[in-house]
Specification:
- Helix content is 87%, strand content 0%.
- It has one domain.
- The chain is mainly α and 89 residues long.
- Helix 1 runs antiparallel to helix 2.
- The chain contains 2 helices and no strands.
Length: 89
């Protein structure tokens, strides 16, 4: 195994992780921004108010995108395992 091969495998793992985590993080970010704007408009200064909407948004996104996320993880793992015999020399 060469250094380039190990770096390539690591790069693919990081890209897959970012691809799977990005929708959840963006959903939490957008929900947090909306709740913060509503708090600023209504002058409600409660720090714990943002947690429930963020959790709800993340759960909703997870329920909707779970099949796609599982497919991405399965494809990456399958590709890694099928290429493994060729990697070891």
């Amino acid at each position: 195994m060469t250094e380039e091969l190990v770096l390539g495998i690591g790069r693919e793992a990081l890209l897959t992780t970012v691809l799977i985590a990005a929708p959840l993080l963006l959903g939490a970010l957008i929900t947090g921004l909306v709740v913060s704007i509503l708090q600023a408009v209504t002058q409600i200064n409660e720090a714990t108010l943002t947690f429930i909407p963020k959790i709800g948004a993340v759960v909703l996104i997870l329920l909707v995108l779970a099949p796609w996320m599982i497919q991405v993880m399965t494809a990456y793992t399958t590709d890694l395992f099928t290429s493994l015999p060729g990697l070891v020399r």
